[in-house]
Design brief:
By secondary structure, this protein is an alpha/beta fold. The protein has one domain: 3-Layer(aba) Sandwich (UDP-N-acetylmuramoyl-L-alanine:D-glutamate ligase). It is about 35% helix and about 15% strand. The chain has helices at about 35-40, 65-80, 95-100, 120-130, 145-155, 185-195, 210-220, 235-250, 285-300, 305-325, 335-355, 370-375; strands spanning about 30-35, 55-60, 85-90, 105-110, 110-115, 115, 135, 160, 175-180, 180-185, 205-210, 255, 260-265, 270-275. A 10-stranded mixed beta sheet has the order 1-14-13-12-11-10-7-2-3-4, sandwiched between helices. Strands 5-6 form a two-stranded antiparallel sheet. α6 links the parallel β10 and β11 (about 205-210). α2 (about 65-80) packs across α9 (about 285-300). The longest helix has 23 residues, at about 305-325. The model is unreliable at about 1-20, about 165-175, about 360-370 and about 375-385 (pLDDT under 50).
Length: about 375
């Protein structure tokens, strides 16, 4: 097998020498997203912080047929560092979900029918529940009520939070109160694709996370011929051009998923991740990405920074699993804990770059880094008994 100097896989050189992350060929007009860039985005975690200090995520996801999507989002949000996570589901399904989630709490949303949200009443309950960021769409039941709820939520301005300015310092605090930012995935994107000029009614910052098929439907719904965007699977230049055009038109950050994921901001900034990993081509990995980005939004990052760091953590987690399992056999549920390990490694790199000890999941002085695979192979060290 050829050498793959990608992400945080095993290498011969020591950890402190690994500074390049994914091996990425340049794409005109786009910045390369590597370890150094991602490390600079890690939000600080004060040692005296508490769960309320690190962001409250409100997840609107899941249905009877797609319950797993909601669980994956919540797990990823927690592993990416969020302090509190609430899963909002239709009231009829709340007992089912409450029995399954452990770290997250649940919130029942009013229904018009079984599993069908009452858009107005559900919106009121969402806005009344404290949160710093929203994740909407994974596993939601399709339907007109869902589409109406999403449109109303995007237009609402009552759930204000204080955030850094978009594009500003990732660690900045303060700023003007604005509606809580949102990650839109899966069914939320389907609803937008069938809504004319949907972006005109949006009053909050958003990160859209479409795969190529969803992106094509969104472009078609915006009045464009998706075929004119070119090959969005294998042509990186075409992917950058299309994602950039969409972000500018919609006024939101767009994450065009796939090999070498593209992150495009409405101001023209574009980054390309270097991860190319067929093991990630399995159901649920997109839900994990949505949870990761939403968690970082809740921790105070701007939409573009949260998307960039989330994509990098997600890709690095996939590479870690690939190193152990190969190009097949990865499950989406393998990723969340690897995201925490990837963040820890980036935090260690950031500490070396910035000389700061207050970053999330950084190893303490004298503490060796241990991956799950290494931990399983290591011999137990003798324990000294105090005399």
């Amino acid at each position: 097998m050829p050498d793959r100097p990608v992400g945080f896989g095993r290498h011969d050189e020591p950890p402190e020498a690994r500074r390049d992350g994914p091996a990425t060929a340049p794409v005109a007009g786009a910045a390369i997203l590597d370890d150094d860039v991602a490390a600079g985005l890690i939000p600080k975690r004060p040692e005296r912080g508490h769960k309320g200090s690190f962001g409250k995520v409100l997840v609107v996801a899941g249905s009877l047929d797609y319950a797993g999507a909601a669980f994956l989002v919540c797990a990823a949000a927690g592993r990416a560092g969020a302090g509190l996570i609430t899963l909002a589901v239709p009231e009829s399904l709340q007992p089912l979900f409450a029995a399954k989630v452990v770290e997250a709490t649940t919130l029942g949303l009013p229904e018009d029918d079984v599993e069908e949200l009452d858009p107005e009443a559900a919106l009121t309950r969402i806005l009344d529940h404290e949160h710093d960021a929203l994740i909407v769409g994974p596993g939601l039941r399709p339907g007109l009520a869902t589409r109406e709820f999403i449109a109303d939520l995007l237009a609402a301005t009552d759930d204000t939070v204080t955030r850094p300015s978009e594009g500003g310092d990732a660690a900045a605090t303060g700023g003007e109160p604005v509606p809580a930012p949102i990650v839109l995935d899966a069914e939320a994107l389907r609803g937008l694709a069938s809504t004319d000029a949907w972006w005109d009614g949006v009053r909050r910052s958003a990160v859209l996370t479409p795969h190529v098929g969803e992106f094509g439907r969104l472009r078609a719904g915006s009045g464009h011929d998706p075929a004119e965007d070119g090959d969005l699977v294998d042509d990186d230049a075409a992917r950058v051009t299309a994602a950039s055009a969409a972000a500018a038109e919609w006024g939101q950050v767009v994450v065009l998923k796939g090999a070498r994921t593209v992150i495009a901001a409405p101001d023209g900034a574009v980054s390309v991740a270097g991860f190319v990993n067929p093991a990630m081509a399995t159901g649920g990995t997109g839900d994990v990405l949505a949870g990761t980005i939403g968690s970082l939004l809740a921790q105070g990052l701007s939409t573009y920074d949260a998307a960039r760091l989330g994509v990098h953590l997600h890709g690095a987690a996939g590479e870690s699993v690939r190193e152990r399992l190969g190009d097949a056999g990865l499950l989406a549920s393998d990723l969340p804990v690897e995201i925490a390990y990837a963040r820890r490694r980036l935090a260690a790199l950031a500490e070396r770059l910035r000389g700061d000890r207050r970053l999330g999941f950084a190893p303490r002085t004298g503490q060796a880094e241990t991956s799950p695979a290494d931990a399983g192979q290591a011999e137990a060290a003798p324990v000294e008994t105090p005399s």
